[in-house]
Amino acid sequence: MEHRQGTIRDFVAGTAIVAAVVWGCTSEPPRLNIHNAHVEFSEVMRDEASVYLTIVNSGGPDRLLRARVDIPGAEADIHEMRGDVMVIAKSLVIPAKNSLVLARAGPHIMVANLPQDLKVGSQFTLTLQFQRSGELQVLLEFTKPRSEPVKPPATHEYHKH
Predict the structure, then answer these.
(1) Is 4 left (phi over 0), alpha (psi -120 to 50) or beta?
(2) Which has the higher per-residue pLDDT, 42 or 152?
(3) Number of structural domains in the chain
(4) Residue 127 region by backbone torsions, left for phi larger than 0, else alpha for psi between -120 and 50, else beta
(5) Does residue 71 form part of some domain?
(6) Is 149 a member of any domain?
(7) Is the pLDDT of residue 54 over 70?
(8) Residues 137 and 126 sit within 8 Å (Cβ to Cβ)
(9) Where in the sequence is the domain holding 61, given as residue range(s)?
(10) Is the dihedral of CA 144, 117, 46, 101 positive or negative?
(11) 83-87, 92-96, 131-135: least confident range
């Protein structure tokens, strides 16, 4: 019986070490900075907008847990793409000494239920809540939607001869 208890104790200790290495349970705290933050009105839905930004982490790992805005009645959710489907994400990992890019066709923050009186140039504060870093605030200004460049289909009629 003593051998079995030792084996279980060794397994638990080994699992804790692996978890610490994988999650980066390190004494180094995350050091987060927000770059290239901007918000665009939706091209389709007048009461929605998407926030794009880059979270640069020069320290230990962290996790983006939620987002909120100071616009009465509006709601912010973290979204990610799973294949071709956009879903609400529970959280997003910001790896140690790395960056997380929130961009079109990838993870981003969706702001919904926007008041109709908002226009290009209106400003608001986005608050990002992180697991280890607490809250960071970003002042944003609404912009027009940026149209993605349209690539013609690769069919014969678009080829020059």
Answers:
(1) alpha
(2) 42
(3) 1
(4) beta
(5) yes
(6) no
(7) yes
(8) yes
(9) 32-143
(10) positive
(11) 83-87
Which amino acid does the sequence have at 113?
N
pTM, entire model: 0.74
Q: Model confidence over 6-47: pLDDT tens digits?
A: 555 565 555 545 445 445 555 799 999 999 999 999 988 889
Question: CA nearest 95: which of 137, 65, 56, 138?
Answer: 56
Query: Which tokens hold the place of 44?
Result: 């389709």
Question: Residue 82 is part of a domain; what is its CATH number?
Answer: 2.60.40.1890
Strands 75-82 and 108-112: antiparallel
Residue 7 falls within a domain, yes or no? no
Quick one: pLDDT at residue 159?
31
State how far the alpha carbon of 22 is from the alpha carbons of 8, 32, 94, 95, 130, in Å. 21, 20, 13, 10, 18
Position 126 pLDDT exceeds 70: yes
Q: Kindly state whether residue 99 falls inside one of the protein's structural domains.
A: yes
- The answer to whether residues 129 and 135 touch, using CB atoms and an 8 Å cutoff, is yes
Q: How many CB atoms lie within 10 A of CB 114?
A: 22
Which residues on adjacent β-strands are paired with residue 86?
81
Helix or strand (DSSP H, E) at 21: helix 2-23
Q: What is the mean pLDDT of the chain?
A: 83
